[in-house]
Amino acid sequence: MKEILQESENKYRILFEEAADSIFIIDANTGEIVDFNAAAYRNLGYSYEEFKQLQLSDIDAIETPEEIKKHVEKINEEGADNFETKLKTKDGKIRDVHINVKSIIIREKPFFIAICRDITERKLAENKIADLAKFPSENPNPVLRVYKESILYSNHAGKRLFGIQEGNSVPELLRVTVNETLESNQSQKIDIGLCDKIFSFIITPIKEAGYANIYGRDTTERKKIEEKLRESKEKFQDAYTRMIFYHNLIAHDINNVFNTIQSLIYLFHHYQNNPEKIKKLNDIINEIKEQGDRGEILIKNIRKLALMEDTQISLKRIEILDVLEESIKNLHKSFKNKEINVQVDSISNELFAQANDLLFDVYENILNNAVKYNNNPSVEIIIRIKKEENEKKKYIKMEFIDNGIGILDVRKPFIFEKNINMKDYTKGMGIGLSLVYKIIESYHGYIRVEDKINGDYSKGCNFIILIPEAL
């Protein structure tokens, strides 16, 4: 439990420190800043040591003690507050900010957590729009003035964009937001796609007059850049995650293989001059071979998994029972010293799926696991195959039912994930089932695991696969 709490604390500390917005923890009784993230001092141009010495009054540019007191009273009464203000940077510049404050309890003491977002650039943009609004007909961006239901005024850009005239109804795309703005008397922002472009509209209520002004601007290029940045970030994160996974896998599993081989070699040297240990020597040699085979399979699976993530896998019409028969023969060759009974119960002697040659790896990994993770003197595997329709799509359904040690319920949701926690890593199973999941996913199919006997995982597993039928 301590480890779980520590991990949770570390996770949220990382989120706290890496946030782009400034975050302050403030003592509700004294008003002192007791904690802050890196953005809090960097955004205002301070070092950590400099910022640690400051009070709120040192950075707030406009709030009076009375106004600060009102905010505190509101937070204590309602539990939260949000408002706009101005903060001073170290070099004396003024930044517009929006602050969202909530009341929290830490170790039975009251604190405020304040998240501060810099809105200086947004304010500059709004001011620029406001300046242009003084001469709306010259504004290249759409400017409208509207009641709830009708348009009082539109400049040329607005008329062209929406195809409207004064007196027309408010464009449907804006109608709901306009009504919400007038009812709440709060400015709102909305992004709308029009004419292959993206426009951002700021809708500002003029309460005393009962209408709203709408100022729009073309943000297509900015949105495209933001989307590219988001995609780049996702690709980087995915690449980083994969790197960590393969690093951990090699460090853990390959290292285990080498450590086991080294131990076996030590035993071999220890027994090799003892004639009575000839049988033991043969067992050691077989174990070394098994470890070598395990390492070879692991590396092969890593290569295939990496290849599948980097390339588009092509599919073809493939007869699945031929591949299954080959996999079963290979299973018996791989476990010659095991008694293995495989029973295939198929709806037909010939079934075609939309797949490829990697289907052999799917069968091999599931069948091998059924044998490796089985403590019974006789391994029993039943393979049931039939057709099934799901969401108007036709699939071939395959069930691999074994009498092995089973999988705990808490582990079932994670056994197909490749981002495996190495503390809970079960030798060899994770990478193999990660590969199986990736292959089935590339077929646009599905895979899941259930208990052989519902509610009793210890009686064995049932791996269920659905692969699109090739018609």
Structural summary, described in words:
The protein has helices at residues 2-18, 38-42, 48-52, 56-59, 65-78, 120-133, 156-162, 172-184, 220-271, 278-310, 320-334, 359-372, 429-442, and strands at 22-27, 33-36, 80-88, 94-106, 109-118, 143-146, 151-154, 188-194, 197-206, 211-218, 316-319, 339-346, 352-355, 378-390, 393-402, 446-453, 456-468. It is of the alpha+beta class. The chain folds into four domains: 2-118, PAS domain (Beta-Lactamase); 123-218, Beta-Lactamase (2-Layer Sandwich), CATH 3.30.450.20; 232-309; 312-471, 2-Layer Sandwich (Heat Shock Protein 90), CATH 3.30.565. The strands form four sheets. A five-stranded antiparallel sheet has the order 2-1-5-4-3, with helices on both faces. A five-stranded antiparallel sheet has the order 7-6-10-9-8, with helices on both faces. The longest helix has 52 residues, at 220-271.
Task: Give a quick summary of the entry.
By secondary structure, this protein is an alpha+beta fold. The chain has 13 helices and 17 strands.
What does the secondary structure layout of this molecule look like, with pairings?
Elements: H1 2-18, E1 22-27, E2 33-36, H2 38-42, H3 48-52, H4 56-59, H5 65-78, E3 80-88, E4 94-106, E5 109-118, H6 120-133, E6 143-146, E7 151-154, H7 156-162, H8 172-184, E8 188-194, E9 197-206, E10 211-218, H9 220-271, H10 278-310, E11 316-319, H11 320-334, E12 339-346, E13 352-355, H12 359-372, E14 378-390, E15 393-402, H13 429-442, E16 446-453, E17 456-468
Parallel strand pairs: 12-14
Antiparallel strand pairs: 1-2, 1-5, 3-4, 4-5, 6-7, 6-10, 8-9, 9-10, 11-13, 14-15, 15-17, 16-17
Helix pairs in contact: 9-10, 10-13, 11-12, 12-13
